[in-house]
Amino acid sequence: MSSPWSLPARIVRGIVVALAFLVILAPIVVVIIAAFSPTDFFKFPPPSFSLRWFYEFFRLENMRSAFLFSMQLALGAATFGALLGTLAAVFVAKRRGFVNGLLQALFMAPLVFPTIILGFALLLFYKTVNMPLTPGLLIAHAVIGMPYCFRTVLASLQSLDPAIEEAGQSLGAGPLRTLALVTMPLIWPAVLTGWLFAFVVSFGELNTALFLTGPGATTLPIEIFSYLQFQGSQLVIAAASTLQVGLIILIVFGVQQVVGLRRIVSR
Fold it and tell me: What pTM, to 2 d.p., does this model score?
């Protein structure tokens, strides 16, 4: 027999979830709709449909270059971060006790420290070693994205039956061959999921990039910040934001086709 409080509890829970979605999605929807406005200034809802501000975005050389640079940077940083996170997770999964907890805290540290502090620390370090701009940005974004892949892969490894790897080793496979032929085919959905999160974080990262960008290496979030603060129309920024959201949706859709959305959100 169900509790008399179960129905009100479900109603309250449904209202809370609906409000959460409204708070998260409503501003994004407003920005996307406003990006198709033909007017010179923000007006919601727009009087008609137009691609004017998307044309304006691609007409601006600095915006176009920053968009392409951010996409290339996010692809490289997500791949590098996924590689580092996967190797770190494989190493940590073999450890037990205090060492396991210490290593997990170490590899998850970039999520704890504010990215603006990380950016400032990397700036000082890069000046010491004369690090070029683009490799420095790539490393910084990979460090920020690495914990996402580390956590998803570690969770996947911890759910594996150790007997599977032991069976491979008993048949003569060494550690590297076991990792490549036994472990990786089982954990690749977690690796791909971590890569996706690392890409999204890198593509929208602002705080760290504030310290590390320069001529020829300006990301789209930095360009949006500068344009909005010093130059012009909010609707160009709306178009730029819509392109960012659209690209992320396309990548999420592609990963969903390969992995499945249920496996992505369950990590």
Answer: 0.80
